[in-house]
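Homework-ish question, so no full write-ups if that breaks the rules, but can someone show me the predicted structure for this set?
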Amino acid sequence: MEKLVLTGVGLVTPMGIGKEQFWNNIINGTSGIKRLTKFSTIHETYGGEISDFNFDVYISDGRFRRAADISKYTLVAVNLAISDAGVKTLNDKDTALVAGITHGALNYAQVFHRALVMDGADNISPIHFSDSVLNAPAGNVSIGFDIKGPVYTLVGGATTALKAVMLASQMLRTGEVDKSIVVSSDELNELSLYCYSRLGINTLSEGSGALLIEKEGKITETTPYCYISSTASQFNPSNPDIALYDVINQCLAKANISLKDIDLVMTDSYIPDKLCLNDIPAGCIIPLAGNAFSLTVMWHIILSSLAIKNGAIPKAIIKNKVLLPDYLRNVLVYSTEESGIASAIILSKYL
Amino acid sequence: MGLKNCGFGRQRANVLIRRVVVTGIGIITAHGIGRKENWAKIKSGVSSIKRITSFDSSKYRGKTGGEASQFSTTILNKLKGKRLDRASHLLIHTTREALADANIIDAVKDIPILLSVGTTLGGMLSGEIFHKKVIKRGLNRAKVSQVFDYLAHYQAIHLFKELELKGDFLVFSNACASGTDAIGHAFNSIRYGDYDVAICGGYDTMNEFSFAGFNSLMAITPSLCKPFDKNREGLVLGEGAGILILEELEHAIRRNAHILGEIAGYGASSDACHMTSPEPSGKCAAIAIQKALKDAGYPEIDYINAHGTGTKYNDIMETNAIMMVFGNKAKEIPVSSIKPMIGHLLGGAGAVEAIVSLLSILYKTLIPNINYKTPDPECALNIATEAMGYNIKTILSNSFGFGGSNASIIIKDFLWKN
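A: Not a homework solution, just the prediction itself:
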């Protein structure tokens, strides 16, 4: 089966915009967590806020100036991923876009609700409605980059980024499209900050991460970061641990490798002892960037791709005390949700 | 016996394509609960559009909608005692009905199931309550649980828990194309061998947030919804859910399932034009239709179940797309929209319309496009205004949504020979 390769990455993160800034800050262990300035009503709250973000530097198209932050982050990340891959055109209907979203444009939804309740139906702005629909970020990207192939928005928790990669891969494998862009994005919102803090999740984040995936035989412009060895996903509400074991085992079997071939695990979740992953370096970006659910997992995928290409595991993200290997062949990225959803991907070095 | 020779599948570009059949349906709309009640009213051309009662619509341009007022809540077993959003109740109830219709409800716990559903709004009613409490009583008085019910994937989680399913789920939020895209994904996942059984469809609830939003865009009609009529003034919103059980053909045969029809093709495209207005020439919607036709092996289309919202721009665009794809034949193929009867179900629209289209094949009956009086030269299609017996074997159902999402699906009579 022809390999699916990652040829471009785009990042809008609290640790920098673009892969260079992001990677340098990861290597140096520079945190993107700071006191939030966006919400005047919230005091002493810390998170991964995107600051010093000048949208016009990256996107000159005036149609998106009033778009919600989440759409702006998405547009910039996709633009960076396309440029990174050296792609000049998106070949019209042969490109797909899959967005994996957890919350959507909550700030516009909040403004819309407030205006409706406080000011009445005659005083609401249509853009706060149309740009708060969950597929608005993907819709704006399709408009901005003239993508006429399938454009999907998947909604869900942290695993959604992995499911978006799986859907994009399915379209490539069946020959429906030549290129697939996968993107995850989120924006900070004061109501969600409050709600998650009540659940003990205190350091939230925002931004975007985008990937360009292509078939190996179709690439001409660039050397890929890595290829997708395997993916798996499962939902088992009655036994979440079983779901996680199953998806990891499925991934290893599909990739035709064993656990000893995994050099790095990236996860936003716990690592059950039974998995026997304790001797493998395990990384997580949340302490440096904050938690943005589906977006965090997308950042893990991108970080793994950068690490594979650079042949280096950034020490600052490693949670366990293990010796770091001086090579990187396969990275397992997985995520689980409390409800029993588990998804995983193995990314491998492209030779 | 080779797959290629026995009619169970076909080969394309080194990928084995299995046949996918529909073995169960579940439906709730303003017309009522279940297949029987819905079909009786659909074929009679009855409207269930009434003055909205779930919120005060007096301040809006339009005041009517298709509320599923016969439906309150479903019976919960595993989640007994939990206060779920209405969207979860709609999804759980229609899924149970579809599984029972497929006679698979007891076996479903032991089969890996793909749930592929579409919704535009998720648990928006919970979101509304939360926002109103925050605004009126402050953040500390609002319930955090309502925020989680608001998230659009929680209905799928609730369904899995209530029915004790195992497998995986995908929730598509592609505005009004969500339901059709969800069916399309389930179709692809079965035919390419990822799953043998899928629960797919879509749902959405009536709520003031979306009503006010569409009203602010001047998309809500102050009168009747009249798709393709020259005097059309906009859409009317509705609520409900539609769920289909899709199965790989051999799997369905092995368990002696009653096959209702076959999913033959699916296509999706994007306008890349505007967030709320369709690409006017229809050329991008035509891509989705053409892809679905190609996917199905270019069958003869006997009936088109139109997206047909009743807005000026959608209906012209859809006409253009149909004309572009079918040429002169477009004027012969009967076309109708069910939205004037039950409203626009947003994320549920594509699924409910796929079910109704399937019923039109099963009962060989054309569905009327009610409220159509004055032909529009810009929508010069063969609009079916009366229900009548008609030998429908293959249908095309279109869905188009915000953000330029286009999706088309082809459903046909099940015949042993592919």
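Now go work out the reasoning yourself. Hint: Chain B has one domain: 12-412.
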